[in-house]
Structures are given as C-alpha cells and as structure tokens.
Amino acid sequence: MLEEHDLYPQAQVCLLSRDADVKVAQTHATAERWRRGEFMLGDSGVAAIGEPGRPDKPQLVDKRNLPKRGVQSQEARAALIHALCHIEFNAINLAWDAVYRFRGLPSAFYSDWIQVADEEARHFSLLRDYLKTQNYDYGDFNAHDGLWQMALETAHDPLVRMALVPRVLEARGLDVIPGIMLRFRESGHQEVVDILAVIQSDEVSHVDIGSRWFHYLCKQRGQDSETVFRELLEKHMKNHVKGSIDREARRQAGFSEQELDYLDGVG
Fold first, then answer.
1. What is the reported pTM?
2. How much is the average pLDDT of 183-204?
3. Does residue 108 form part of some domain?
4. Alpha helices in the chain (DSSP H)
5. What's the total number of domains in the chain?
6. Residue 17: domain span
7. Would you give the distance in Å from CA 146 to the centre of its chain?
8. What is the pLDDT of residue 1?
9. Has residue 49 been placed in a domain?
10. In a domain, 121, yes or no
11. Each residue's pLDDT tens digit, 35-81
12. Which CATH number do you get for residue 25?
C-alpha cells in the first residue's frame, strides 16, 4: 500500500512506459497526483536504470543518416516536425529520469522536474497532433539517441546532469527554435509557429530550472558555478560549438554574462 504513494516507483512506471500515448497519459496523471499531495519521497541514493521505455519506432540511427529536414516540401517539413517531436519525447524521459534517479534532494526539485515532464508531454502531443494532420505520425522517420546517451553519461551526479542536459542540450533549443519559427512563418505555416511559440516559452523556464538546481548543488558543495560549468563542458563536450546563441533567452534561463561570453566565443 505504501508503494502506491511512493513517488519513485511511479516515476519509474512513467519512465519505462513504451507506448507513447500511455507515457503521456501516465505523465499527466502522475503530475496531477503529485500536485494534490498524494505522493511521498521514499529512499535516498542514486537509482540505476539503463534504457527508458520507448516505442519500436522511430528507428534510432546515426545522425548522419537522418532524413532531410526543412520547409521546402511537405515531407521535409514533416521530417523537421518529427525531429522536434522526438526531442520532446526524449525530454519526457529525461525529466522522469531526473526524478527517479536522484534521491534525497529537496521536495522542490521533484516538483520542478515533474512539472517539466508534464509540459514536455504536452509539447510532444502538440507536435504529434500536427504531424497527424499532415498524414504522418511519430515513428515515421528515423531519429537519433544523443539525448539519452548524455543522460547515461551524467547518471552519476545530479550536478553534472543539471549542467549538461538542461544548460547545454536543452538550452540549444533556445538558440535554434526562433530561426525555425521564422522559416515556418515565411512559408505560411502559422499553426506550426504558434506551437513552437508555446514550446519556446516553456523551454526558457525548463532551462532556468536546470540553472537553479545547478547553482544550488554548486553552492552546497562550495564550488564556483561558472568554473564548474566551463570545466564540465570542456570535459564532456569538447566539440561543443560556440557562438550563435540567443543571449536574451539564455539570460532569462539563468546564465551569467561570463557564461554567455564563453558560450558566444568571446570570453
């Protein structure tokens, strides 16, 4: 009976669900139950999990073998939307993984990442529903597994996870989504622009959540956050491309001016 009210097993259920519709429904239901105060936090310590639940399709391939994406044709537009849809599906898993894997943190940490999971599930549904209006569905194009590989690489430490997943991989979306919105607007696809505007607004908040918990963990350990961030980036992502960042969006998401200069290639 107690396990029914322990958050961690329920987070694991959401994380391991393979069917996309089931994962989305379980995510929304669990988030609502958490907001109603129906869960407690159980044992502490880092929990191990290898692979998240995901459908048989899309087939995961090397990035170099992905389909051509753009706005020049219906298929290219669908491939681009599908790529964004896949990112959002992975983001659901990444949020639940943070909840399930990292134990013994303040209750607010779990509130934040459950909120992220809930909103990522909504983003996934918005994009998937649009795909269906174009006679495509999630799984119709190949995709890659880069986001989850970084989840595994950062599985040992919530500080490293907060630094590299929200503040690097997810923050990259803050830089590129405005350009994608512009291309869809210019090609007359305002419905896509409206969906991406919702996602962009929420993603600033999600990256800011990552920034806040990264700073919290650095402070707890008596470490300088700017130094740690740079060291982790150079250790784990040596080929990270500097420049072309949206400084204002990242500023809103908790980046310092020194960090922005470094990422912009001027500091």
1. 0.94
2. 96
3. yes
4. 7-16, 20-35, 74-101, 107-133, 146-153, 158-164, 171-186, 190-220, 225-236, 247-252, 257-263
5. 1
6. 2-41+64-263
7. 12
8. 39
9. no
10. yes
11. 999 999 877 556 677 889 999 999 888 877 777 787 889 999 999 99
12. 1.20.1260
